[in-house]
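Annotators were shown the component list below and the corresponding predicted structure, then asked to write short factual statements about the assembly.
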Amino acid sequence: EPEVTQTPSHQVTQMGQEVILRCVPISNHLYFYWYRQILGQKVEFLVSFYNNEISEKSEIFDDQFSVERPDGSNFTLKIRSTKLEDSAMYFCASEQGSNDEQFFGPGTRLTVL
Amino acid sequence: QKEVEQNSGPLSVPEGAIASLNCTYSDRGSQSFFWYRQYSGKSPELIMSIYSNGDKEDGRFTAQLNKASQYVSLLIRDSQPSDSATYLCAVFHQAGTALIFGKGTTLSVSS
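Structure shown to annotators:
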C-alpha cells in the first residue's frame, strides 16, 4: 500500500542552524502538508501546498520556515535558523484531493540543542 | 479561533467492551471529520472519515456525526488491548486547508 515517507527519522541540530526535513508524498496525491507536534501537545498545522504554491499557513509558519517541491516526488520543509522551541515531531501528510483524507508520514523528530 | 475539544481521558474499558469517544468542534463551516489513532511516539493513523450526518461503520468502528450539535463520536466495539492508544479527532473545511486536531483521548483496554 502506498505510504508517505520522511527522512531523517531523527535530526539533532544546534540552535541557529538550518535544517531541511524531507518528505515523499503518495505519488498520485495533489495536496501536501506539514504539521508539528510538541511533546505532550496536540498536532498543529503549519502549512499546506498545492499546485506548487502555499495554499494556507498558520501563525507558526513565520519567515524562518519555507517549503519547496524541488522535483516531482520530494516535498521539503526548511527551518532557516532553528530555535529551542522548534524541537518537536514534524509530520508530512498528503491528500489526493478527491476524498479529503490526509495520510501522515512517520515523522521526523527534531531536537534543537 | 477554530477549536476541536476532546476529553483527554484516560478512558479505561475492559477487553470486549464498547469504547465511546467524543469530540465537539466550534466552526459550523467544517465539512469533513476524521478520527486518527496515535500510538505513543508514532504518527497519526487514519481510522475513519465522515462527511454526512448519521453513522458510518467500518468493521469494529462506528463514527457518528451531528452537525447541528457540532458533535462527532467514535465507537469501538469488542475493544482489544491493541486498541490502547490516543484517539485524535480532526476537522477541516476542504482539501488544501488546515486539519484542526483535538488534543486526543487516551484509551486503555485491559485484558
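Statements collected:
1. The mean pLDDT of chain A is 95.
2. The first strand of chain A starts at residue 5 and ends at 7.
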